[in-house]
């Protein structure tokens, strides 16, 4: 019997949530056949069996939180060539024939070999998996099924919990106390205030509790880290996009726009890519421990996409080097994959800057939160018609609200004002944008 374990799925991915189990005990599986679907760092992935054979036991369920190295399945591997047509008894070495030629007395099948002292069953290695041995899972953790379910909901590894019951048995209170301890330690380590104890809401009426899991949990952890680590300032401006919007609508009626329509986000992506080249401090990170500023010589821009699971931020790489139509097509594809749960983990990594456009939801102004270790983020609101005084008269103009939030340790207010005004003026000049699109 071979243990099929969760392989390494990417850098810094230690735990994942099982979103679906695709096989059952008794099923025959191929080595490359997906057996479970997991969510990790806001991406949905299929995990293959890693060995061909027949599933004897499924060790995970939908909703479980598991770690790299945890056992997914027990698989009985396919018999070697020449043994496939024989049963297990026939596959055993034949009994020795006595010297007198009489048939030997039947003997029971030999028991399976015992693993070496302190050893475990064979571990399946997946392509690209680390060669390090799987973690020693030790003896089963003493905990009731309801306690295990609570631990999965809270993202707690029971192997890290100290049980206060008889024989070290873990209770629900032990799990809750461990979860609170981890949260407080994380907050204290990030320099944030310790979270206060919640009151007993049931004193005033009925409540419902749901686990903070999946994308929402990852988002909460990242935003808490950003809020604790970055002294944040937000500045606001507006861009007159009357001509830009007219140009966009005219272009989208042309045949070449059939596959990918130009969107305001794609136009902002193009302008921002150029702006980050002109203002490199916005395309940097601060290494406070080393006392250094890390300037990136590449421009990879994350674009926030709303999905039914929460906010995902796929990354458009080398945004400063791509044309407008190329950016529009790439942005459409990234958003479609995010909503269909097909985003690969690498698509969510490596951003140097982020754009968040809430204009489609009717939002005017808002304060976006910087996605650490980036140092700035651009927010776009809903463009609206305003009366603008020009040459002695008020005329209707379409004004796009802009906001930039930034790390004040690295970026000063004057820097942010120049950066935001440069973006606004670039959006106000469609001819410049078209020239940039072909640069």
Structural class: alpha+beta
Oligomer: single chain
Give the SSE order as H and E letters: EEEEEEEEHHHEHHEEEEEEHEEEEHH
Largest sheet features: 7 strands, mixed
Strand content: 15-25%
Radius of gyration: 29 Å
Global shape? globular
CATH class of the largest domain: Alpha Beta
* Domain module tally: 3
Report low-confidence residues grouped into runs of 5 or more. Answer: 80-138
> Architecture of the largest domain in CATH?
2-Layer Sandwich
Residues in helices, as a percent range: 10-25%
Mean pLDDT, to the nearest integer, reads 80
* Gap between N and C termini: 60 Å
CATH topology of the largest domain: Chloramphenicol Acetyltransferase
The tally of helices reads: 8
Give the tally of β-strands: 19
Report the CATH superfamily of the largest domain: Chloramphenicol acetyltransferase-like domain
Describe, in plain words, how this protein is organized in 3D.
- The radius of gyration is 29 Å and the shape is globular.
- The chain has helices at residues 145-154, 172-189, 214-229, 242-251, 264-278, 324-339, 413-427, 430-437; strands spanning 2-5, 15-21, 28-29, 34-40, 43-48, 53-58, 65-67, 71-77, 232-240, 284-287, 292-295, 301-303, 305-307, 310-312, 315-316, 353-357, 376-380, 384-390, 393-407.
- Mean pLDDT is 80; it is low at 80-138.
- The strands form five sheets. Strands 9, 12, 15, 16, 17, 18 and 19 form a seven-stranded mixed sheet that branches.
- It has eight helices and 19 strands.
- 29% of the residues are buried.
- It folds into three domains: 1-85 and 116-137, RNA polymerase II/Efflux pump adaptor protein, barrel-sandwich hybrid domain (OB fold (Dihydrolipoamide Acetyltransferase, E2P), Beta Barrel), CATH 2.40.50.100; 139-195 and 209-229, Dihydrolipoamide Transferase (Irregular), CATH 4.10.320; 232-437, Chloramphenicol acetyltransferase-like domain (Chloramphenicol Acetyltransferase), CATH 3.30.559.
- With 439 residues, it is of the alpha+beta class.
- Helix 1 (145-154) runs parallel beside helix 2 (172-189) and helix 5 crosses helix 6.
């Amino acid at each position: 019997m071979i243990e099929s374990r969760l392989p390494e799925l990417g850098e810094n991915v230690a735990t994942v949530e099982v979103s679906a189990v695709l096989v059952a005990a008794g099923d025959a599986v191929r080595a490359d056949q997906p057996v479970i679907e997991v969510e990790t760092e806001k991406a949905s992935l299929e995990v293959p069996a890693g060995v061909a054979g027949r599933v004897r036991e499924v060790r995970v369920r939908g909703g479980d939180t598991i770690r790299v190295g945890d056992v997914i399945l027990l698989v009985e591997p396919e018999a070697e060539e020449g043994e496939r047509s024989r049963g297990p008894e026939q596959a055993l070495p034949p009994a020795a024939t006595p010297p007198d030629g009489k048939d030997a007395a039947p003997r029971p099948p030999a028991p399976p070999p015992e693993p070496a002292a302190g050893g475990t069953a064979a571990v399946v290695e997946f392509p690209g998996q680390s060669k390090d041995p799987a973690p020693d899972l030790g003896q089963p953790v003493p905990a009731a099924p309801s306690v295990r379910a609570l631990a999965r909901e809270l993202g707690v590894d029971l192997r890290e919990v100290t049980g206060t019951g008889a024989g070290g048995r873990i209770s629900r209170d032990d799990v809750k106390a461990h979860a609170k301890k981890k949260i407080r330690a994380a907050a204290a380590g990030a320099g944030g205030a310790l979270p206060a104890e919640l009151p007993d809401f049931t004193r005033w009426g009925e409540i419902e509790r749901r686990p903070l899991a999946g994308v929402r949990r990852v988002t909460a952890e990242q935003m808490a880290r950003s809020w604790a680590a970055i002294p944040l300032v937000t500045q606001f401006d507006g861009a007159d996009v009357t001509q830009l919007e007219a140009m966009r609508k005219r272009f989208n009626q042309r045949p070449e726009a059939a596959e990918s329509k130009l969107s305001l986000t794609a136009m902002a992506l193009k302008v921002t890519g150029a702006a980050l080249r002109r203002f490199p401090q916005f395309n940097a990170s601060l290494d406070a421990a080393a006392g250094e500023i890390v300037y990136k010589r590449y421009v990879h821009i994350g674009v926030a996409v709303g999905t039914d699971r929460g906010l995902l931020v796929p990354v458009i790489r080398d945004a400063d080097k791509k044309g407008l139509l190329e950016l529009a097509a790439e942005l459409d594809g990234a958003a479609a994959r995010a909503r269909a749960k097909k985003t690969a983990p690498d698509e969510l990594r490596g951003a140097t800057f982020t754009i968040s456009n809430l204009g489609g939801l009717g939002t005017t102004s808002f304060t976006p939160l910087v996605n650490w270790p980036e140092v700035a983020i651009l927010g776009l609101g809903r463009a609206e018609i305003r009366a603008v005084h020009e040459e002695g008269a008020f005329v209707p103009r379409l004004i796009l609200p802009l906001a930039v939030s930034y790390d004040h340790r690295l970026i000063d207010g004057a820097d942010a004002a120049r950066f935001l005004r440069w973006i606004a003026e670039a959006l106000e000049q469609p001819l410049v944008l078209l020239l940039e699109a072909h640069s």
